[in-house]
Amino acid sequence: MENKLKTKACEHKIRAIHDVMYLIGGKWKISIIACLCYGNKRYSDILNEVEGISGKMLSRELKELEMNKMIERTILDTKPIGVEYSLTELGTSLKSIIDILADWGITYREARKLIEEQI
Amino acid sequence: MENKLKTKACEHKIRAIHDVMYLIGGKWKISIIACLCYGNKRYSDILNEVEGISGKMLSRELKELEMNKMIERTILDTKPIGVEYSLTELGTSLKSIIDILADWGITYREARKLIEEQI
DNA sequence: CAGTATCCGGTTTGATACTG
DNA sequence: CAGTATCAAACCGGATACTG
């Protein structure tokens, strides 16, 4: 009986996480958001700073992030035309999560090194 | 000059996050880890609790998670054979991140509702 | 029970060329 | 500059049948 409740709580949490990953779990989405944490950026800036992403992927991911209200797109009236991307309030609310993830990533790399050396 | 340093820091963090997402960003990986946060589980338990996953995907993801030292696989000597999966220390270290993500997911849903209503 | 093997359509993605 | 269009290759993932 108690076990069933536990399972329910588990499933509820899993669904919440699945939702989150749908939003930010694309191959590049968090990287893009992380990039914008350091200030507003243009399309070409992001293209340079997020290693490995192609132009096609970038524009696609940007579009989805905009749809989900994570980022905002502003057209600058420069010539030639420029576009600036910035985080919305919602996007900004991910900053702390991003920091935690990045920290974990670095810790993980160290931990892996230690485990490997034991072999 | 100062700007270049900033860009470097940015790119470093982005790479760290990209690594993390490579590890836990598969369609099901965090869900599986989240599921195991609630206790060791058998293959069939996970199959039931992670909604939507197929057997093929589950075994594939479990294998990758094991390779990356996130989970451990123990063969029980029951008949018929049973297999139990559990989190390693590394996997366990994700618990807090998972909680934060799940919380954000729920908060996000509320925020989106508010934004939508304004329209 | 806990998987593996095979088939197979659908989706994703990179490269390249092009546009306003 | 900031994208879009198009093609082909690679990969994903479901269904089903099979194994120890």
Briefly say what this structure is.
The first copy, chain A, is mainly α.
- Determine and state the CATH class of chain A: Mainly Alpha
User: From the structure provided, what is the oligomeric state, counting identical versus distinct chains?
Assistant: homodimer
Q: Which sequence of strands runs across the widest sheet of chain A?
A: 1-3-2
Examine the secondary-structure arrangement and name the CATH architecture of chain A: Orthogonal Bundle
In N-to-C order, the SSE pattern of chain A is HHEHHEEHH
* SSE class of chain A: mainly alpha
* Shape summary of chain A: globular
Give the distance, in angstroms, between the N- and C-terminal Cα atoms of chain A: 43 Å
Q: Uncertain segments of chain A of ≥5 residues (pLDDT<50)?
A: none
* DSSP summary: helix tally of chain A: 6
Beta content of chain A comes to 5-15%
Q: How many distinct domains of chain A?
A: 1
CATH superfamily of chain A: Winged helix-like DNA-binding domain superfamily/Winged helix DNA-binding domain
Task: State mean pLDDT of chain A (0 to 100 scale).
Answer: 90
CA radius of gyration of chain A is: 18 Å
CATH T-level topology of chain A: Arc Repressor Mutant, subunit A
User: Can you summarize the main beta sheet of chain A?
Assistant: 3 strands, antiparallel
List the helices and strands and how they pair.
Two copies of one chain form a homodimer.
Chain A: H1 2-24, H2 29-37, E1 41-42, H3 43-49, H4 55-67, E2 71-76, E3 82-87, H5 89-92, H6 95-118
Antiparallel strand pairs in A: 1-3, 2-3
The structure holds a DNA duplex (20 and 20 nucleotides).
